[in-house]
Amino acid sequence: MTDSSIPLLIDTDPGVDDALALLMAFADPGHRVVALTIAAGNVGLRHTVANALKLCEVAGVDVPVHAGCPVPLV
């Protein structure tokens, strides 16, 4: 049997709203989160990466988490 779920790479700045969206994506059988790329948001990159890692730990999800841009591009 082949995996018919849709692979997702999610780019996010995990605060409360994005954390809820990530939990929903992790739990959706129609999608498979393959990696997260993390940007700075209302707080710095260090905090958003820590949020993403803690969220994956709490949810029991093992996906790569990559730190991205620490500041807005514009």
**Number of helix segments?**
2
Roughly what fraction of the amino acids lie in strands? Answer: 15-25%
Q: Write down the overall geometry.
A: globular
Q: Let me know the average pLDDT.
A: 92
Q: Helix coverage percent of residues?
A: 25-40%
The strands making up the biggest β-sheet line up spatially as 1-2-3
Distance between the termini: 46 Å
Biggest sheet overview: 3 strands, parallel
Q: Please state the CA-atom Rg, rounded to the nearest Å.
A: 13 Å
Helix-strand topology string: EHEHE
**Poorly predicted parts:** none
Characterization of the model:
With 74 residues, this protein is an alpha/beta fold. It is built from two helices and three strands; from the N terminus they run βαβαβ. It has helices spanning 16-27, 45-59; strands at residues 6-12, 31-38, 65-67. A three-stranded parallel sheet has the order 1-2-3. α1 (16-27) links the parallel β1 and β2. α1 runs parallel beside α2. The protein is globular and about 40 Å long. The chain starts with 5 loop residues before the first strand and ends in a 7-residue tail after the last strand. The mean pLDDT is 92.
